[in-house]
From TrEMBL:
InterPro entries: DNA-bd_dom_put_sf, HTH_17, MerR-type_HTH_dom, SinI_DNA-bd
Sequence ranges assigned to domain HTH merR-type in this UniProt record: 7-56
Protein name: Helix-turn-helix domain protein
GO terms of molecular function: DNA binding
Annotated GO biological process: regulation of DNA-templated transcription
Superkingdom as given in the UniProt entry: Bacteria
Pfam name, any one: HTH_17
Length: 70
């Protein structure tokens, strides 16, 4: 496993995204985000770069070019 400093615990990741820990658990179960497991205690850990990518995805507006009429 990579350096544990590159990961956030579920409560930290939830604060970072502005959602509840239960929302993160639901997103993991739905396959929207990958949770890595701590090698010793099995807790969910989230890579900050993956959280940043998710935030970027959520902030991008939907493709509006298909809805425009000429």
């Amino acid at each position: 496993m990579e350096n544990l400093r590159d990961f956030l615990r579920i409560s930290e990741a939830a604060d970072y995204l502005g959602v509840s820990p239960n929302t993160l658990r639901n997103w993991e179960n739905a396959g929207k985000i990958v949770a890595h497991r701590h090698p010793v205690n099995g807790y969910r850990l989230f890579k900050k770069e993956e959280l940043d990518a998710l935030l970027q995805q959520l902030q991008e507006p939907p493709d509006s070019s298909s809805s425009k009429t000429k």
